[in-house]
Amino acid sequence: MNREELESLLRDKIPTLPKKARKVAEYLLSNMREVAFYSIGEVADKLNVSKAQLVRVARILGFQGYADLKTALQKAILEQIDPVTMLARAKERGEGLLPNILDTEHANIDNTWRMLDREKINEFVELVKKAKNIYCMGWGISSLVAETFYMRFRVMGLAGHLIKRGSLAILEQVRGIKEGDMVIVCELPSYVVEVTEAITKCASQKATIVTITDTAAAPVCSVATLQFYASALSPTFGSSIIGPLFLAHILTSVLSVELGEAAHEALEEQVQFLHDERIFHPVFGLRY
Element (H or E) spanning 99, and its range? Predict the structure, then answer.
């Protein structure tokens, strides 16, 4: 059963369900990605219902029990990031693929914008100001977002560091992180065990953890000091980074203004660097 079929099943059943069961089914429909990775106890607590009620709803939907429903949810979600499945669907769309990509990326930016909270942005700025070192972590496509943060921090004269796959494992790279340091981790599906373990280690070493994910169900969120969400849907590859990059652009732009004179001086130095003709062609490449 793919995601569309599962959503259709829930929509068809919701009008026929009694009040409590309808509440559960509506939550499943609206939070499929989160529910797929929460335990039955976590879902029951969020809805203030019993585990038995969740099992009953699963059976009403045609599953043997809640475990079977959860398996179906996980398969439906994982299918969305399976490149083979997504390529097959892209071929089926034919000429409709390009408009679909455009619409999806517009939606990613719009949804990321809607999930932003000004108070959280302000908290982010204050955490950066207090941090001794700022480590930017990512694996695979998520490392491109981490590198954007790292680059912006360095341009603003901050002590930014990049952690991604390389000659050292990520777990090896986080050994020196300690209290007073800040770690910004971007984690888009598929979620990586080593990243979760590394962030958990950083939290145990009393570092401040800021997460950028597509959902609160991402494992790294369990130890986060501050959480941001970005829409990362894609009709072709597993995850799009347009939404996450948009979020990185907003956070670092606000930070550059709030840092005041310190950021201004660092950016002036950067302008002089851009005029270095040993590196850049004259006139061209002066925009940063």
Answer: helix 97-114
Pairing state between β 208-213 and 160-163: unpaired
For domain 3-80, give the CATH number: 1.10.10.10
> Considering the entire predicted model, what is its pTM?
0.75
Q: Which residue has the tokens 């990520």?
A: 170
Contact 199, 223 (CB under 8 A): yes
- For residue 2, the Cα-to-chain-centroid distance in whole angstroms is 23
What are the strands, taking DSSP E only, across 114-231? 134-138, 160-163, 182-187, 208-213, 226-229
DSSP three-state, residue 224: coil
Per-residue pLDDT of the chain (288 residues; tens, 9 = 90+): 777 788 889 889 999 999 889 999 998 988 887 788 788 999 999 899 999 999 999 999 999 999 999 999 888 776 665 555 556 666 666 667 788 888 889 989 998 999 999 999 999 999 999 999 999 999 999 999 999 999 999 999 999 999 999 999 999 999 999 999 999 999 998 899 999 999 999 999 999 999 999 988 789 999 999 999 999 988 777 789 999 999 999 999 999 999 988 777 877 877 777 777 887 777 655 565
Instruction: Say if 3-80 and 110-257 have the same CATH topology.
Output: no
Domain 110-257 in CATH 3.40.50.10490:
yes
Pairing of strands 182-187, 208-213: parallel
Task: Tell me the one-letter amino acid at 18.
Answer: P
